[in-house]
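To close the section, here is one more complete example, presented without commentary so you can practise reading it yourself. The ligand is 6-diazenyl-5-OXO-L-norleucine.
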Amino acid sequence: MRIKQLVILGLAALAAACSQTTQTAQQPQAIDAVVYEEVVSAPPVRAPSGMVVASNIMASQVGRNVLRSGGNAVDAAIATGFAMAVVHPSAGNIGGGGFMVIRFPDGRVTAIDFREKAPLAAHSNMFLDENGEYSRDIHHNSHLSVGVPGTVAGFAKAHEQYGSAEWSDLVQPAVDLAGEGFTLTQSLAASIGFVAGRYPQYPATVAKFANNGLPYEAGEVWRQPDLANTLTSIMHHGRDGFYKGKTARLLAEEMVRGGGMITEEDLARYEAQEREPIQGTYRGYDIISMPPPSSGGIAMVEMLNVLEGYDLTSMGHNSAAYIHHLAEAMRIAFRDRARLVADVDFVDVPIEHLTSKSYARELRATIDDSRAAVSAPEDIQQPYESFETTHYSVVDGDGMAVSVTYTLEAGYGSKIVVPGAGFLLNNEMGDFNAQPGLTTATGLIGTDGNLARPEQRMLSSMTPAILAKDGELVAVVGSPGGRTIINSVMQVILNIIDFDMNIQEAVDARRLHHQWLPDRISIEAGGVTPEIVAQLEAMGHTVRVRGSQGRTNSVMIDARNGDRLGAPDSRAGDAGAAGN
Ligand code: DON
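Output:
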């Protein structure tokens, strides 16, 4: 009865939730919905020393407090990440994974890969049902969709290598937020009410996100005691507090209960990896971003190399010519991504070639300035994904910059809360290809590189990025949004470099997306005039409008005085910048 009531209330809350922080999938809409809107941005948040910008202001403040008490940007990023697991549960996590890109004050760069892995028992046909047919449900919404989580190992590795504060001081704020609770905003109350009402088959999920079976109201205090206990164990025992002992046992038991594969051995074997970032240049700026298992850095540098050959400034921001050239670069890069990019620990990826200026010249020669190409005949479509993941950016007083994007994959991941441990599990296995050779018109790719194999990491689009010029830090950028991430991050960079926007304008400006297949441009509602749409259609493009694309919480350095300029994405209701 209570569950039923929750479902109804949860559904009623969905509209609010979609338009605010939950960023649920937005399908492109009919073109007559296009109405151009001028974007007027607030000024960025300014501070002289440090800045943290995340999709929840409480988490930004946790990071800022770490900077204030002498921690560096890596420390602040770790504390922000643990806090996000409490206050932004749809994407902030300890049961998921992600990437951290770091630039040190002396210009050195590195990246920490804490992407989830396939369990030891994984195999390429694991998403088939008992009739041998591919099952989208198994792939994306089951215990088999859960990858071995990486977040806690990633934060522990980042701390061990580059942190300076006490580990316990970085986890304690999250323990407090979970144990003592915090006041729910309207959008968060609506969002957790929705998930509690929608998944009665997972009692621990309902128990976490509902108040004795009833939805929480805005203004109520929300406590997460099981999560507080798990975080306390991580605070005392570091990564072992998650990957061994009680937490690992509870997770493995839930896998057995629900037919999943992850064992205590899988957890004990998980290792975060330090990797060399992808580095490119664009009009004299250095671009630093994530290597495989993310496709983000490669695809973004490939596109920027292609676009460097055009005078985008003269074309005008979001003009038909601009959108056309971006869409053609996106079409090519997403084709290469689908065909060639996967976990480098398992597959040879031609990184040098894909990110070279000479390859970009060849690609440019194939682009017609006034006619859309047609995406390849293999008819491999890629589905739109949900828009839950989260990005935050940190800069400290010394100029150390940290760019973190991490995720549970879908909003609230698999929706499975580990009973007794209070945290959500990801559904990241859905980022592996479905089945060998299965390429369909409805969204599946059957190429070999990104098939599920024991301990392989699934391909990602997350693109935490850092921009520098002449040895100086310029900006820290990133976004959620599935495959749109790469294009959202690139457009913030273009807005800074080609259109001289301030960081808040660069973040807020309307964005577009093309991902090779489906062969269409989607543009955020309000982003273009009907005349521009007509010009694009005359060139052979299919154009659709969509809801918001990405949440690019960013930081930029004011070149005149070194101030940190924080730009929370105005699309994210609870986002905020906290400066120091
Ligand atoms: O790693 C990836 O690319 C995806 N699992 C990210 C998912 C995502 O961004 C969904 N929503 N924002």
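Once you have examined the tokens, check your reading against these statements. Confidence is low (pLDDT under 50) at residues 1-27, 379-385. The two ends are 49 Å apart (CA to CA).
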